[in-house]
Description:
Blueprint: E1 7-11, E2 15-22, E3 30-34, E4 37-43, H1 48-69, H2 73-87, E5 97-101, E6 109-112, E7 117-121, H3 129-142, H4 150-156, H5 162-177, H6 187-190
Parallel strand pairs: 2-4, 5-7
Antiparallel strand pairs: 1-2, 3-4, 6-7
Amino acid sequence: MAQPGGDPRVHPATGAVEIRRSARRRRTVSAYRNGDRVVVLLPARLAPADEQRWVETMVTRLQQREARVRPGDTELAQRAGELSGRWLPPDSAQPVAVSWTSRQNARWGSCTPADRTIRISDRLRGVPTWVLDYVLIHELVHLSEPAHDERFWSLVRRYPRAERARGFLEGLGFAAEEPAPAGQLDFGQAVARQRSQGRQAPVG
């Protein structure tokens, strides 16, 4: 079992880095982002001399992957507009702003209908585009439909990958609570095998 709490460090590029050693882990090293920190999972028997090298390697890989797949706030807003135009009714409410946030640890996204703003949790860095698109659709619908009622879900289900994305997000939630599977780099990879479960996941 991984050591509770882990060993907190600070990386100059990513900020907080938590190192967890696990007796169940023999050879594999992995890393993933959990909220505002990076968690690096190491074998319990890894020599201290090798620890820093592996931490640097895994943090660098995670940064590179995030840089490839994470759009900025401007691109996020543009994508939300494209999704709304493609999948939602023409008279749907349009967001004034769509942005990433590091302050959401319990939900993947949230919105404020009064000022038409949408916030997306940066825990979704690195997830497949179709999963991020689902969260955007979910919050776009909330701008007009605050309750999770039949009207709300009928609009969300216009997005063809809605059920699959919900299953993926549920797996992502489990990955946030448990150590990432051996050989996995981040949340998106860690739960790829669970993405078609189709169970409901909390979004916003």
